[in-house]
Every structure is written in structure tokens, then in C-alpha cells.
Amino acid sequence: MSNERIFATTEWRTELPVLAGRTVLLREPASQDLGPLVDLLSLADASRFGMDEGVTEFGVQQLIERALRDRANGLALTYVITLSAARTVVGLIQVRQLDPGFEAAEWECTLVPSVRGSGVFLEAARLAGSFVFGSLGTHRLEARVLLQNGRGNGALRKLGAVQEGILRRSARRAGAYVDQVLWSMLKEDWGDHWVAAGPRVH
Length: 202
Description:
This protein is α+β, with helices and mostly antiparallel strands. The protein has helices at residues 3-14, 34-41, 57-72, 120-135, 150-159; strands at 19-20, 24-27, 76-83, 89-97, 104-111, 140-146, 162-173, 176-186.
């Protein structure tokens, strides 16, 4: 592992950097985000971020605490997405390792309806993706989206992700198993999505 990779890995495990874009700001979730995150994750089409039970304040508090532990252990990173001007929480994005070296990872994101289609997803994804590809040394990012989620699948297509297949009955929603679409992005495909994100060592 290069000195740059060691530095980047150590630094983000200690403190997740704030990622600022033109209209959004990404920061690690904190206890004061409990209310907005309960509202966000209670949406019928929200990603579950590993929450198997119904959305409760206790469950979301556990999600916040788990996000901090997973970051410290180098297993995952989680960002709340806020609007830069008002600092209003409008989404959540999480990236989890799929192998011990974080060379392959999976990400999921959910947004409040009021900002869907506004460009917030693309800006937040570019910030998070650039940090993961640039500072963590990740080579491949995967996403799994419900087949019936047309807006989510369309957003990943717009980002340049490649649809690799349909995962049959791979997720459970409202007591039924549903299909998901598997998407992937490779570091070499990131292209013009690169933005300055996170600490870099030259």
C-alpha cells in the first residue's frame, strides 16, 4: 500500500472530511440529525441502509452510532446531504466496503422528494464518488436499486453507471421480495465527474 493510501485511510477513519459543492454540503451524521433522518427514512421508497425493522427514533439513533463505528473501523462512510445555504438535511448517502481493501464498494442514497430531479443527487454523488475513488483507492462502486424505482435508475444512468443485470427477488419490501437492478461504476469511467474532495497528499 502506498504512503498516500495509508494516509488517506488513516485520516478518514479518524475524521470524515466535509465535502462541499456548489449547492450541497456533505458531512457525517450527528445526533441533532435524528428528527430529519427519521422523516427521510420513513418515506415509502427510502433506502433502508441496513435497517431491517420499521423506522423508529431508536433505530435511526442506532444507525447514526453504527455509522461512526463503521467509519472508525474502516468499513463504511456515511454522509448526510444538506443544502449549502440553509443546512437543511435533504438526503443520506452511504458507501460500504465489499472487500477488506475497499477496492470494491457498494453505495446507496436516498433524498427527500422536494429535491429529486433538481441536480442534488448528481452533485452529492460526484462529491462522494470523487472522495471514494480519489482518496480511498476504490476501483469499483456498485449500486442496487429497486427495479420499479424509475427515478433512481435514471439518475444512475445519467451519472454514467452501467447496468449489469437484474437481481431477482433480492430485496424485501412490505413483506414481499422484489427485484433490484445492479449498477456499477469503475474509477476509469469516472471521467468528467471528478471534483476536488477530501484531503490529498502529493
